[in-house]
Structures are given as C-alpha cells and as structure tokens.
Amino acid sequence: MTSRLERLIDQGVGRVPADIVLKGGSFFDLVTGEVVRSDIAIGADRIVGTSGTYVGETEIDISGRTVVPGFIDTHLHIESSLVTPHEFDRCVLPYGVTTAICDPHEIANVLGTAGIEFFLQSALETIMDIRVQLSSCVPATHLETAGADLPIERLLPFRHHPKVIGLAEFMNFPGVIHKDPVCMAKLDAFQGGHIDGHAPLLSGNDLNGYLAAGIRTEHECTTATEALEKIRKGMHILVREGSVSKDLAALIPIITERLSPYLALCTDDRNPLDIAEQGHLDHMIRTAIANGVEPLAIYRAASISAARAFGLRDRGLVAPGWRADLVVLDSLEGCRADMVFSAGRRVSDALFSTRKPVAPIGLDSVKARPVNAAHFGVPVAEGETPVIGVTPGKIITEHRRYRLPVKGNETAVDLANDIIKVAVIERHGKNGNHANGFVQGFGLKKGAIASTVGHDSHNICVVGVSEDDMARAANRLGEIQGGFVVVDDGKVTGEIALPIAGLMSLEPYEKVRDTLHDLRKAAFALGATLEEPFLQLAFLPLPVIPHLKISDRGMVDVDKFVLIG
C-alpha cells in the first residue's frame, strides 16, 4: 500500500494525478521576483509541483490570474474584531489571510487561563491556521484592575500545545530593563523560544537591554527612524495597519527589497466594518504598491518573511513541498482574492460548515456597580487641568493642560475646545473603583459613548458631555453584559452586545458589521469626528509614555504620560 508521503512524491513526479491542479495562470516567485507561468499541483495539504504541466483529479482554470502564498497576520487580537475565532476565520480567510498569529491578551485579562483555553480550542477547529502567543502581561499594569492574574506558573502548562508559538508581546519594557522578578520569570522560561516585543519609542541602550532578553519582533514602530534602529539591532519589524493604529504610511520608506527579509505585516486590532469596506492584509498590500513599494518587497513581508520570523518553516512560498496556502489574485497590484486555498482546501461556505463549534465563555463578566450622574463629578482644582489628547490614527495620547470652566463646585466640559469628560469604571466585581478625567479630540457635542472594551484591563470606559447620559450608557453595558453603547438625551440610540467576556459577539460577523455601521452613525450624530470612535475609546485607558529615558533614574516622569483608571 502506498503511503501518504510516497503518493505526494508520485504526484510531484507526475506518475499519478495531483489532487488539484491550478492551470493557465502564473505564480509570483518570492525568491527571484519573477512571475512564472506554470501549473500548480496540490497533493493533500501541500504543493507538489510547479514550473511544469500537471494532470489533476480536479483541474481549475485560473487563466489571467496570479498565485501568491497565503498572507500571514503576525500580530493581532482577534477579540478586537468583536467576533469569535470561528467568525474571524469565516470573515478574514476569504481575503487571503491563511495564518493568523494571535495574542488572546484581551480575553485573558478578563478571564485568565479560561480565555486562553477558549482560543486554543477554537484554533484546533478553524480552517485558517490560527497560532497563539501566550499572553505575557496579565494584568497589563498595576495601575488598573484587571479580571485575572497570569504568573508564569499558569502559562507553562500551555507552552507545548501544538498551536502555541511562544510568549506574546512583552509590553512591560520598564520591567524588563529593571529586572522585575515577575518579568524575569516569564523571560527565563521562554529563552530559546519566540518572545514577541512591544516597546514603543524605546531606543539607545534601553533598547539594547530589552533585546538582550531574547525579544525579536516588534509591532509598535510609528516612524521609519524608529524602525530602522530596531532593524539594525536585529528586530523583525511588524508593520501595522489596524482600525486605530495606522502606521503603514509612516513606514513605507522601509518597505524595500533590501529590508523585506526583516519585515512582516500585522493588523493588531481591526473590526469587521473596516474589513468589509477596505479588506485586511490585502488592503495593506494594495496601499503599499499604490504608494510606490515594489511588489516583491510587500509580498515577501506578507508571507515568507513573516513565516521565517515566527519559525513557521512550512509556508510562505509557491514551491513544491510547501504548505498549500495559496491566494489566486486578479493582479499583484490589485491584490483581490478570486479564490483561496488553506492547507490545500479551497475555501468555501461548505468548508466552513465542517468545523466543530466551541461553546462561548465569560457570559457574565460585567459586574460593575450601578452609577448615577453624581459619580462623574470632577472637583475644582487650582490652575490648569490635565487633559488626555487623542491623536487620530494613533493609540499614543498626549498629556495636555487647560484652564477649564467651572460649574458650581465642579470642573465642567469645554465644548469650544472639544474637551469632554471621560471615566473608567471597574467592572470585574473586585473593588468598584471609579476614576474621572477629561479628554480632547472626540468631537462630541452632546450625549455619551461607553464600552467594556478598554485596553488592556477591559473595564468600562465612557466619554460624554452629559453626566446623566454617561451614567445611562455605563449602566446599559451591565444590562447587555458588555459591548458598545451610544446615549443621546437619556435614550440609547445605538448599541452592540458583546457578551463573551464583554469583548466578543455571539452573532455572525455580517450582523456585527451591519450593527457597527449603525453604531458609527449614532456616534456621528453626537458630533463624533474620529473615524473609529469606539476603538479609539477602547485605547483611552492605556498609560502611554510618549518619550522616556528609563535607565538614568529608574523611574518615569509622570508629566510625560496621561493615565486614568
């Protein structure tokens, strides 16, 4: 009896028909940069033949089209798509993303190991190859209350799971540099494996110390200068373009043929509405080429360079013996998928129907205490008031100061300067903490917007002009067990329920997409000017340090960052 391996060899030689043959088209050779006219023969889950003529049990005519390797999203939080891994699979795979390397950091900060287990179970069922990085920062900061705590002892049982690649983005870079014992325990355990980085604006000797810990990849570069320093110091740069963090334009200068072996692409956080309107990694590829990037550079970054950065040795080229993750395109410049193959299987609704479901978890995770308008008062302080400054398209915020108006014995909003109230409300049922502040840049003229998606601890974050509307929005989140809510004059004018850990919907991605469209309209009716007001709101609770030099004093100047909650 012929073994599976022997059959693959026979198919490659041409002794027996291949399972599938793509005929009449071409493929993009990411080694030489040539577009090669050829049949592509597939046996089981891998490519068995190129640069020749083949007979297949199934033959598909792809005349006039070009085949490229499947795209690899090298860093993302599937939770930010607001749908389950199964729905993410169904939503994104048709755009050519055949591998996704995710960090279940968001659900882990709410539910702990149960969240990681949910993702690993889902990854075993999806058609797309979802790989998991073990969340390194749960909690993400001691400055806010998370729902869980994951020391190294709780991560190690997952280390050898077949879907686990390594340790996820190590956000606590001051902890690395100053050898925090909790950080050191995690880094020690994963020496020799993959450790993903997260060190915005870190440079000089501090960067050297961070990299000495064995950290190799980075998705937080926002300028070409920052990226070049990190590339020179051995980092693999993951160029990011998500729904909020849009760094592609700034990093276009580094996406060259010379540097492409040290680049990859990622989305980090992208919602179904943006995917429907623009696409996914295909959108990044089209945009890069339209802005003068050589196709060879960007397609390498999207596949073979990404695979090598994360130790995925079986994918990233259209070549015999490589995993048959393939995208049939209209053209290299257009980058629109006509058909997609995942491990040799043509992607279709019928293929998705073969997956086993995974039961949802965390359906009662919103345990916030009810609030009223009085909870949102800010006492009058002498002088100027700290204000969080939002930068559209960035998660980095600014620390601004304004002399704000006073109403009675409280500090009031300043609509003339686009300054409204913001609050973070603990929702894990631990301590009931509540913090208030001010934010500039949302554009709201009335009402309130609230969310249980609040990176990284995922407490309730609410912005608004009216304290009554802020209270109504926050309380409504408890009633629907998480999500996004828009309130205008006491009425809920838009909402989406995200009951899985307060982060993900139980609905198909199409319904989530359509609901997000209506939700965005409701936010714009309040005057919102941000393209993505909800995801921008989700990043407001982050303590972001725009510039620092850590080593000299072992501390950070608090005037350099804004923190609420």
From TrEMBL:
It catalyses: adenine + H2O + H(+) = hypoxanthine + NH4(+). The keyword Nucleus does not apply. Residues 395-561 form the Adenine deaminase C-terminal domain. The keyword Transcription regulation does not apply. Its cofactor is Mn(2+). It comes from the Bacteria. Its EC number is 3.5.4.2. Residues 66-346 form the Amidohydrolase-related domain. GO terms for molecular function: adenine deaminase activity. It is an enzyme of class 3 (hydrolase). Gene3D superfamilies: Metal-dependent hydrolases (3.20.20.140), Urease, subunit C, domain 1 (2.30.40.10). GO terms for biological process: adenine catabolic process. Pfam families: Adenine_deam_C, Amidohydro_1. Keywords: Hydrolase, Manganese. SUPFAM superfamilies: Composite domain of metallo-dependent hydrolases, Metallo-dependent hydrolases. PANTHER family: ADENINE DEAMINASE, N-ACETYLGLUCOSAMINE-6-PHOSPHATE DEACETYLASE. Belongs to the metallo-dependent hydrolases superfamily. Adenine deaminase family. This is Adenine deaminase. It comes from Rhizobium sophoriradicis.
